[in-house]
Request: fold
Amino acid sequence: MNLNKLKPLSGDASFRKFYRYKNVIIVFCKKDTKKNLLIYDAINKILIKNKINAPKLISQNYKSKYIQIEDFGNITIYRKLKKNKKNKLIYFKKIIKLLNLVQKIKTKKIKTFLGSNYKVPKYSKKILFEEAKLFLDWYAPKKIAKKNQTLLKKKLILVFRKLINKIKFRNKTFVHRDFHVSNLMIKNKKLCVIDCQDAVFGNIAYDLASLIDDVRLKTNMNFKNNIFEEYIKSNEKINVAEFKNDFEILSVLRNLKIIGIFTRLSIRDKKHNYLKLIPYAWKLIEQRIENNKKFIELKIILDKYFSKKIRNKYEN
Reply:
């Protein structure tokens, strides 16, 4: 198949390219094909097995670095909410129901289309730490004078480790890992999940943090709190204090990671359009660490090294 004759669809932050051909989506990937094609489909299979709508595999040509999957159309929840903000709460209540279903998944192994077994990994403390460190590896060097970088790195690494060690819940819940309204679609009035290749067994609060403190969709704190309460109401047995602790830590670490990833996308991959989201990622961090005892050390360091002027800039 000659993909050069097809017009690519708007893509995501991965190495994948998407094309619509007749009634299917062609997913092409030159780099990291195992993760972006093989594991991508394996996780979709797990979701489908657990009665959650995810793209079905139509055919695969792994040697030529592409697969064909079910076409869910163009309607993401993000697009719906941008058009009609009045229905925001209605959609989010449906999303919470979907999240509860996702979190009930116990399937840890699945056969890939190549016949190999794929085991869903655990979201270890080491992975969480390495992800948060992307902030230091990519963003900080662009914003901080070289003479200050070593000390900043030492201070933040210590704080990251302390915060990760304060997390209460064990890694036993199925986590999509990028659960937000741009990765949720509507087909035949049903919610569908996409972009699942990074799924892990991790902390129960992680996907809710992704959803509520979503860098792509601006919502006020009152709305965020309403969605948080909606989740708690549907999970009455949960220890709310411990859950809130993990939710806040994971939200902050995730948005620091996102700032690092968006900077990397610009520097390494020449994808500059994500930079405009960095100021709101900073705002989300500020909202969570303000007047919050467990973030005192982090707040002092961030305030010292990253001024409001730095946080509000996103040019490459």
